[in-house]
Structures are given as C-alpha cells and as structure tokens.
Amino acid sequence: MSARKGWGALLREALPDFSWRGKVDVRRESLAGLAGAVLVIPQAITFAYLVGLPPEYGLYCAVFVAFIASLFGNSAMVGGPNTAVSILLSVTVLQYAGRGSPLYIEYVLILSLMVGVIQLGIWLFRGASLFRYFSPAAITGIKAGVGILLITSALEGALGLAPLSARFFYEKFLVAAGGWNEFVSPCALLVSGITIASGLLMKRRWPRMYIVGAVVVGSIAGLAIVGWRGPVDSQIELLGHVLLKPFPLMWPHMGPEHWVIVEGMFPNAVAIAVLGLAQSLVIARDLNAGATVNLHKETFAQGLSNLLSPFFSTFAGSGSFNRTSVAAQMGACTPLSGMVSAVAVAVIACLLGPFFTYLPMPAIAGVLALVGIGMIQWKEARPLLRERIDGAVYVLTLLAVTLLGLEVGIMVAAGLSVAFFMASVSRVELQIVREGPGERIAVTGNLFYASLDHLSAHLRQGPAATTLLDLSRVPYCDASAKALFESIRRERMLHGGKLEVVPA
Amino acid sequence: MRTVLIAAMAYALASIAPATALARPTIEELKARRVLDDYESNVVYGYNIVMETQRYAPRYTGNRLRCTSCHLNAGTQPDAFPLNVAGIYPKWRAKNGVRNGIGLRIRDCFLYSLNGVMPPEEAPEVLAVAAYIHYLSEGEVIGRTPDHWGVPTLPDTNVEPNPARGGEVFQRNCAACHGKDGAGTGPFPPLWGPDSYSAGAGFNSIPKTAGFIWANMPPGGPRLTHQQANDVAAFLNLQLRPFDPREGKLKKLFERIVHALSAAWAGDKP
Fold this sequence. Notes:
The structure holds two protein chains of two kinds.
Chain A: H1 7-14, H2 26-51, H3 55-72, H4 83-93, H5 102-124, H6 136-159, H7 171-178, H8 180-183, H9 186-205, H10 210-234, H11 259-287, H12 295-308, H13 321-329, H14 336-356, H15 361-375, H16 378-386, H17 388-404, H18 406-425, E1 429-435, E2 438-444, H19 453-459, E3 466-473, H20 479-495, E4 498-502
Helix pairs in contact in A: 2-3, 2-4, 2-13, 2-14, 2-15, 3-12, 3-14, 4-11, 5-11, 5-12, 6-15, 6-17, 6-18, 9-10, 9-15, 10-15, 11-12, 11-13, 16-17, 17-18
Chain B: H1 2-16, H2 27-32, H3 38-51, H4 53-56, H5 67-70, H6 72-75, E1 91-93, E2 98-100, H7 102-112, H8 124-136, H9 163-178, H10 206-216, H11 226-237, H12 251-266
Antiparallel strand pairs in B: 1-2
Helix pairs in contact in B: 3-8, 7-8, 9-11, 10-11
C-alpha cells in the first residue's frame, strides 16, 4: 500500500495547487458556489444546533472549514458542516460536559482538532487507499440511518423533547404520546409542520433549492404566529441575536489537564475521522469518475481543514452529499466553486445577520427533518436491496445506526465491508474434468488460509485417487495452501494415490 | 470513571489552593483555577452573564440592562433582589399562572426585563445562570424565603404617589447618573426608553420600584423618604418603554423592527 514517493511528492500534495486554473469556467463555478452558499446557510445553523453549539459556529464552519478544504483539495466537492459528523461530535462530548456549557464548547474544539490530526495521520500513511474497500452499500446505509436520526431529533425539536434523555430513539416518542397535552406546543408543531409540508411540496418543483424555500415559508409563518399571539402565548422559541465576526480567530484552551479527556474521546475521534473521510472520499470518487482526482490530496485537505477549525472557532466537518450534488448539477467541476461558496456564505450571513434573530426554532427543526428525509433515498437503496450481499450490508448498517447509535454503526459498516470483501476474495472456483483414471482440477481464484476449505474437502474424499492440480490461474498461493498440498501428497502416497501440482 | 478522574484532578488542584474560611470558593478563586469541573465552569459563566449580560448572553438580550443592574453586586446585595433564591423554586407565580422552576424564572427575566428573546429551556446561558444562583444559595434552607429577599415593602404613607413631584426628585437626585432623559450613563442603566426594561417587567410596578429605590438608591448617599421613593416610582412608571411582550397583534414585532432599523440607522449594533 505504501508506495514511497519521497518528501517532495508529499509536500506537493500538501500545498494548494491550482492545476485546475486552465480549464475553469469562472461564471459557471461562481453561480454554483452562490447556489451552494444559499443552500448551506439554513443547514449550517441547523447542524450547529445538532452539535449543541451556538449558530455562529455552524456558519463559521461553512465559511472557514469549507474554504480550506476547497483551497487544498482538487475536486468540486463542497465541504463544511456535515450531519453525521455533527451527531457524533455531540454524542462524544455529551459524556463529559453539559450541552452548550463552556466546557462543552472547549471539548468540541479539542475533539475537532483531534479529528484533524488523525486524518492527517491517515494521509501520511496513505490510508486513503483503504477507503476504496468501504462498501457503497454501507455508506448508503449510514446515510439512511443518519436520516432517521435527523428526523427523530427534528421531532424532538418540534415537540420540545430535547431535554429528555432516553436510551433508544423511540422512547421519547412514547413519552410524548403519553403526555401529549403537557409536552406539545401546538403553535411550534404547526410551524414545523408548515415548514416540512412546504418543503415536500416544493421538492417536486425545485429539487435543488427547496430547503431554502421551506425555511422562508416556515419563518414567515412562525413570525406571523409569534407576532399575532405574542411570544408568551405562542410559546415559539426564536433563534436570538447572531453576532458574526469577520475573522473569529481564537486559540483553543488546551493543556495537560485535558489529557484525560483526549484519551477518553480518542475512540470516537477515530470514528469521526474515518466517517468524515469515508463520506468525503466517496463523494470525490463519484464526482470525478475516471478523471484524475488525487484521493490522498483530498484526505490532506480534509485533515487540514478540521485541524484548523478550532482556531477559527468552529467544529469539524466533511464533504457534503447534498451540497456537492447541487454544485455538480449546476456544472461545478473545480474547487473554485467551493471557495466562492465559502466567501459568499460569509457575505450573505453578515448581511442577513439581524434577520436570523427571528428565525423560529420549530422552522429549524423542520429543516432538520427535510434534510433527514432527503438522506433516505429510496432510489439509491432499491438496486442495493436486489443484491443479496449489498442488501444485507445496507439493512444491517441501517439497523445498527438507528438502534445502537452512529458510532457503533460505523464500526459495523467497516466490519461488514471488510467481511464481505474477504468473502468475495476467498471464493475459489474449481473446474473438475475427468481424465482417464484420474481427474484434473483447474483452480481460479486466490488460494490462502481462508479459501482452502472447499478444495481440501474435495481432495480428501478419495485418498487413492490421482489428481492433477492446475494452478495456472491462481494469482496468489500462500504458505498454508502449500502445506496442505504437501500433506495431501503424503497421504495419497500412503494409499497409492497421486497429487501433481502444476504451479502458476 | 472518567468523570471521577476529572473530579479527582480538579479536587487535587483545588486542595493546593490556599484554604479559606468559606466552604465555597469565591468567583475570583474559581477564575484563577486552571481546571474547573462542569458545574464550576457554569458558575463562572453564569457570573459573567450576570455582570456583563451584553457580552456573554447577547443572543437573548434586547436592551442595555445587565442582570446586575437590578440584582445589585452580582445578586449578592440584600434588599436588591438578591439571587440566593434557589431554595424557593419551584413555586407558583401569579405572573404566568404556572409552576415555575428556576429555569423558567430566568427565561422570564430575559423576555420581560431584558426585553429580549425567550431562551429555550436548555439554553446554556439559562443553565449557567441557574448554576450561579445555586452557587449563591449555598447555606440557605430549602423552602424558606431567604432574609432580605426581593425588596422591602414600604409602609403606607396615606398620600397618593405623585409623578410630577417624583420627576423633580429624579432630576435632583438621580439624573446625575441615570441621565436627564433616563437613558443611563456609563455603567448606570437606562431607566426608560427603548433600551430599558419592558412594560411587562416586574420592575414596572410602583410598590416594587419604590422599595428598591428606598433601599438602594442613591448608592452611598442619604436615603429618600418613603413618599419620595413612591413619587419617583410613579414617575418612572409613566415613561415610555418597550411594550409588554404578552401583547400580541404584531405590536411587539413591529416595535422590534423599528428599534432594529433605528439602531442600524444610528450605526451601532441592535
């Protein structure tokens, strides 16, 4: 795996190259970037809520993390806040501090830094090649699972169940169903419902920008209700003032006293790093199918953007499926669109800042649900479910993510990918032809410790037989296979049989 | 297990610090510590919000008041709405007609007195202020109203409060700090106008304001008489201030937009 290239090549990967300069269509890329910026703003605020941080952090993520990832990357992938990464950040840090408290923010920043360091480590050891083995079915399963998690947390937001904690996602809904009139604020539910319904209606007409339309409709509806009934009677929570700084530079508070936390968060940091990279690299791979996209360079860009994220007072992100696909549909094919998008987010967010104050939280819950619904794509899942193995990976990953949690789901997905990959590699075909008194076996496939069962069972059937074993179509034959042939040859000699091996 | 370790580390570091007579560390001691646990960091955060509300809780604040504008000395001064009240919540309040936990009480302050946006139940700012109130309430008896709670109730003077006389007293005794137009100067809070408390705030009642003025104002100077305090309170009650947020019909929303636009016009932050 480690094709040593020397330090020069590594350095070239680590510096922004503008090799796309020549073929860039500035107008098309800028338009795609602008569309991405409009699309990301409601998502950034929503995902910051998902992480448990103030909305500013999400917007900074859509600006700085996205910009660095595009600057150092070499594809049209759009980075920034990501659902799955956001969920995992919050799950990890919640073990150590109360949601949104000063310590919580400190730990989220440290965790983001750790994710960046781990991803840079993966880059240094050429780990991007490993993500080729991450099964697309598993990624689709994770996406669908995250979609379900998003819908449940949106329901929590809409019903006001967030302070409740439950072991399994459905427990909260049982509570809500039991104490319906005590928990549920009808106005908040109405605003969420309007947001979701308008989004689903607009999805047909404007498949790219329907979320933005839904936010606008939901906010107007929410504001009308708040204005008419007053903030006390309507019980609708508003976002509050959003104070953006053009350069939110900061030095995260870190020291030896954080070692215990770092140690505790490490396994989840690895999970986040792997999940972020898996998504980003799958996106980059699908985007430039056939073209020259350097996955190692993309890994470096992701790692660097996450490593630097705490210094811009924000959290880790990764590539985004929905924003990248919109950018690609609008004709973006270079990193320029991502950079334009990041700058445009900064400008638009600063201009719109005062309006964010009156963004109703139930409308944000509605966006969460819409993003979740968008992630469960039946179109992607159907072909997978027709295949036996892909279907199994998809269903098992989905179940693991929804029932056992995202961090377990990722491990299950990785394990299943490897397992089914091994299973497919270890399949060996035997062509058995009778030749006079003996038989001739032509073997196709790799012969190694895991793939020998079938062949050895066949060979041990008749100890007195004569067999010619043709290994000319065996690319790899390991020591345990050779030992097996040797022991069978001895056995056959005792019983008067014969085993002849034609090596590759 | 990890939290135990962190707690142990924090405890070890805390025990290195010089022992004080008080069981609870002061805010300065907490701020000087290198490691704080979740509760302590929330106490410090809550203290910061109380002292510098615009800086630490800008999201939900709508005017230029700070918590400590009414809860004097960061909520430690007796007879000035001291904040050592964790033991008397939850309780029923006539204001909203429901059982109020300390969280809802704090959120109400953001909505009415700070004329802002009501924070969500689990907002970090609310939890931090709650932690600070809890910290101040150490040693109080649960369920018993603390001594010098709220503000004193003034005796009946048998004379109606007179706003006109109150205005004169205000210009003579209060305007030096609070400004002739009541807009406040420097650290002294605005008493009316768009940057002060709303008409729905608890302070917008003559008996409460009079008690507060009589017990605490002017600081360090000679006290006003009961009648003077009543007069000033009546004068303050007549001034223009933001609408009560309980009034709907787009009134409050309209006011907010006008306020934001005029602030933007003046060139500073809303």
